[in-house]
């Protein structure tokens, strides 16, 4: 939830997006959250991801819950953040 909240806040506050799409997919073995905006974007690289507290926090939160965080962004093309967590099957 906090990763999605941070991604949404970043899209409004920094990306200046006027369209934000949020998808939550809950499947039998995987749960994923996708936040995609049409904002100004940025060059996503190791240095950039370590500089921003929001991006760093999302990365740490994803690791803490055993999830995978993916950030795709390019200048002028918006940003897409996806966090996926495998679900344990119980019988």
The biggest beta sheet reads: 4 strands, antiparallel
CATH class wording: Alpha Beta
- Distinct helical segment count: 3
Q: Any low-confidence stretches, pLDDT <50, length ≥5?
A: none
- For the termini, the CA-CA separation is 26 Å
| Helix-strand makeup class | alpha+beta
CATH topology name, in short, is: Heat Shock Protein 90
Helix-strand pattern, N to C? HEEHHEE
Residue fraction in strands: 25-35%
Give structural notes.
The protein is of the alpha+beta class. It has one domain: Histidine kinase-like ATPase, C-terminal domain (Heat Shock Protein 90). It is 33% helix and 32% strand. The protein has a four-stranded antiparallel sheet, with helices on one face. It is globular and about 40 Å long. It starts with a helix and ends in a 5-residue tail after the last strand.
Explain briefly what this protein structure is.
Helices cover 33% and strands 32% of the residues.
Write the layout of secondary structure elements.
Layout: H1 2-13, E1 20-26, E2 30-37, H2 46-51, H3 53-64, E3 68-73, E4 79-86
Antiparallel strand pairs: 1-2, 2-4, 3-4
Helix pairs in contact: 1-3
Which tags fit this structure?
91 residues; alpha+beta; Heat Shock Protein 90; four-stranded antiparallel sheet; 32% strand
């Amino acid at each position: 939830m906090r990763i999605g909240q941070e991604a949404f806040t970043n899209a409004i506050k920094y990306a200046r997006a006027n369209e934000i799409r949020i998808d939550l997919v809950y499947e039998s073995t995987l749960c994923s959250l996708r936040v995609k905006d049409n904002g100004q974007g940025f060059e996503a690289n190791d240095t950039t991801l370590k500089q921003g507290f929001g991006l760093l926090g999302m990365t740490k939160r994803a690791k803490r819950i055993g999830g995978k965080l993916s950030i795709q962004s390019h200048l002028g093309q918006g940003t897409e953040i996806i966090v996926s967590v495998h679900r344990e099957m119980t019988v």
